[in-house]
Each structure stands twice: as structure tokens, then as C-alpha cells.
Design goal:
The protein is built from 12 helices and 2 strands. With 393 residues, the chain is mainly alpha-helical. The chain has one domain. Strands 1-2 form a two-stranded antiparallel sheet. Strand 1 and strand 2 form a beta hairpin. The longest helix has 37 residues. The radius of gyration is 22 Å and the shape is globular. The chain starts with a helix and ends in a 6-residue tail after the last helix. This is Phosphate transporter. It is found in: Membrane. Potential transporter for phosphate. One of its GO terms (cellular component) is membrane. One of its GO terms (molecular function) is phosphate transmembrane transporter activity.
């Protein structure tokens, strides 16, 4: 019976990992795919490799937090309850992926385990409080760091990074020799190639940060139950994530690459770097983080910082000038763009609306699902563990 339950638990963990791959590949490689820099298949391969590296190095710390510290008695992670927790994580994430929205896997996993802890009366409120505090603080850190970059450093960074993406392939393969050699196509210059490569590198960094935080969401309950060792659990989880990156992730890649936002290259690099760095930091201290929420706040902060450039800090403090509120100030970067100094007005046509950056309908769908998916997992887990006698809590 135990062997059968463990097999069921592993299968459910694979289902969760599959959906994690679908939910996290879009935020990492959506910009690169949307810019036709890489194919969806290559995005899936890069996501799988760097997710594994992050999971194997730092991710085990987050596994310990969810599997052994979030509940006061790890004994509540029986095989039956572990299967139940993983089931609710997987179903909730599948709902998000079905609608093409990359849900917060960390919030969903913590919600499911918290539902178990509440039902059993074993929730570690100190650890839960620490996680909740960081969930509140980290998006604001991302917001303010990005705001400062947007206001004071974006213009100089943009002069070095921004480029116009030419039509046609980035590389061509020279097959005249014994070994095929990739070369820049006739329509591609060195600046453009460097910018595109940078976007891909940032995507790999994001995939690594996802592995450090999200591997726990697939395997922590089984590791906490003591029925599965850490190393084989990580391998199984990463294998399942890889399956998701090559299949269901195609929908979230479409959403994040083409529908939700069309960030210029400089903005995409800044927000991705800030977000991934924060997630890696939180993973090091054992906190499961929501990359999507941090990234969203970083985008808003960067846009706000750029939009307030025409207003000096002194004028803003004295109330003599009102700061524009449009985050659409990110949406009109051009290669070689020269912005006016801080406190000087930009040309009126250079201050676009927020809708120039975000598609309102898609943004509303993403925001709604980011809240609905973790709520489904938390409430469903609590009611099930509280009312269904098979779990024996």
C-alpha cells in the first residue's frame, strides 16, 4: 500500500512540475520568443537546463522551508496528505495554464501547505509570517529599485543597449565548410546581435532563479514526508518541469511574448535582472518567492521613474508640479534616443498612455488569475483536509 501511495505521490508531483514548467517559461523567455530571437523549442530547452541548475544548487533550501519548517510537525506530511497537497497545487496551476496565465507557483504551493497546516492545527505561524512579510516587502523593493533606475540611469543605459530589431533571421548557417558555422545575417548588425543575446542571457538567469524557488513547489511535501530523498526528488521535479516547458508552456510564451506587454529591450533587461536577483536572494534565505508579482511591480516602478523625469524632486516635494502617472513612458524607446535632463519637459508626443505599454484586457486577466489560483489551492486544501476523514487529521 505504501509503495502504491508513493508512486501516486510521484505521479502527482510530476503533474505539478509539468504545470510549473508551463507557468514559468513564459515570464523567462516570452520577450526573447516575442522578438523572434529564439524558437519556443529552444526556449523550452534553455528553461529546463537552467531550472535544474538553480534547483540543484539553491533550491533545496526552499524545499526544507516548505517541507520541514512551514508546519510545526512534519509528521502531518503523510503520504496521503502529501498527495492531497500536490493535487491542489497541480489543479490550481493547471487552471492558470489553461487560461494562458503564468500563475504564482510559490503562492499556490504555500497556500496548499498552509491549508494542510491549518486543518491539522500545525501551521508554523512564525515561518508563515516571515514568508508573508517578504511577499509584501519584495515587490516594493523591486518597485523602488526600478524607479530609481528609471529616473536616474535609464537614459544612459538605453543609449548603450537600445536597438532596432531588423526583419529576418538573426543568424544564418554557413554550410560550405566541414562544420556548419552560424554567422550574422545580412540584415543584422553587431549591436542588434548583442542586444538579442543579452535578452537570452537574462532569460537564462530568470530560469535559474525559477529553479531556486519553484522546485520546492513540486517535491517539498514528499521530501517532508521522508518517503523521498532530496536528490532524486529534485531530479524527478526537474524532469517534469522540462516536459511542461516543451508542451503547455507554448501558451504562456504566447501570452508573455505577444499579448501582455511589448517592453522595449532596455526595460525588459532591467526588470528581468531586478526581479531575478530578488528571487535568488529570497531563495538563499529559504523564502519561496513570486517572480511574476515582483516583475510586475518592477515594470510599474521603471515606468513611473521614467514618467517623473520632467519633475525635479524639489518641485515634487513643494507640490509645484504634479508627476505624470503613465507607465507608458517605457513604450517609445529608440536606438540612440536622447532624453532631456531631469526637470525638463519632454516632447508631448513622447509621453504615451499606459495602454501603449499594457494590453488592458490581458493585464486584467493576469491580475485576476494571480489572486484566484492561490485562493483555490488554499481553500480547497483546507476544506479537504478538514472534512475528508481519509487523511486522519
Amino acid at each position: 500500500m505504501t509503495t502504491t501511495l508513493l508512486l501516486i505521490g510521484i505521479l502527482v508531483a510530476v503533474f505539478v512540475g509539468y504545470n510549473i514548467g508551463g507557468a514559468t517559461t513564459g515570464p523567462a523567455f516570452g520577450p526573447a520568443v516575442g522578438a523572434d530571437a529564439i524558437s519556443k523549442t529552444l526556449a523550452g530547452g534553455l528553461m529546463t537546463v537552467f531550472f535544474f541548475v538553480g534547483a540543484w544548487t539553491i533550491g533545496r533550501r526552499v524545499v526544507d522551508t516548505l517541507g520541514r519548517e512551514l508546519v510545526t510537525d512534519p509528521g502531518v506530511f503523510t503520504l496521503e496528505s502529501s498527495v492531497g497537497v500536490l493535487f491542489f497545487i497541480g489543479v490550481a496551476l493547471f487552471i492558470g495554464n489553461f487560461f494562458g496565465v503564468p500563475a504564482s507557483t510559490s503562492m499556490t504551493a504555500v497556500g496548499s501547505i498552509a491549508g494542510l497546516g491549518l486543518a491539522a492545527g500545525e501551521l508554523n505561524w512564525a515561518v508563515m509570517g516571515e514568508i508573508a512579510i517578504w511577499w509584501i516587502v519584495s515587490p516594493f523593493i523591486g518597485f523602488w529599485v526600478s524607479l530609481i533606475i528609471g529616473r536616474y540611469f535609464y537614459a544612459s543605459l538605453n543609449r548603450r543597449i537600445a536597438m532596432e530589431r531588423s526583419e529576418g533571421p538573426l543568424f544564418e548557417v554557413d554550410r560550405s565548410g566541414t562544420v556548419p558555422t552560424p554567422t550574422l545575417s545580412d540584415t543584422t548588425n553587431v549591436r542588434e546581435a548583442g542586444g538579442v543575446v543579452m535578452v537570452i542571457v537574462i532569460g537564462c538567469l530568470m530560469a535559474y532563479s525559477s529553479g531556486t524557488s519553484n522546485i520546492a513547489n513540486a517535491v517539498a511535501p514528499l521530501v517532508g514526508s521522508g518517503e523521498l530523498e532530496m536528490n532524486p526528488a529534485i531530479i524527478i521535479g526537474c524532469f517534469a518541469v522540462g516536459i511542461g516547458t516543451f508542451t503547455i508552456a507554448r501558451r504562456t510564451l504566447e501570452t508573455m511574448g505577444n499579448e501582455l506587454t511589448e517592453l522595449p529591450l532596455t526595460a525588459a533587461i532591467i526588470t528581468a535582472t531586478v526581479s531575478a536577483t530578488l528571487v535568488i536572494f529570497l531563495s538563499v534565505i529559504g523564502i519561496p518567492a513570486s517572480f511574476v508579482i515582483i516583475a510586475t511591480m518592477s515594470i510599474i516602478g521603471l515606468g513611473w521613474g521614467r514618467a517623473t523625469r520632467p519633475v525635479t524632486v524639489g518641485d515634487a516635494v513643494r507640490g509645484e508640479e504634479s508627476a505624470p502617472v503613465s507607465v507608458g513612458a517605457l513604450s517609445d524607446d529608440r536606438e540612440g534616443e536622447e532624453l532631456p535632463p531631469i526637470g525638463e519637459e519632454a516632447e508631448p508626443e513622447r509621453i504615451p498612455k499606459a495602454s501603449d505599454l499594457f494590453d488592458p484586457a490581458t493585464t486584467a486577466r493576469v491580475v485576476l488569475m494571480q489572486n484566484v489560483v492561490p485562493a483555490i489551492a488554499t481553500v480547497g486544501a483546507y476544506l479537504t483536509f478538514q472534512l475528508v476523514p481519509i487523511f486522519g487529521l
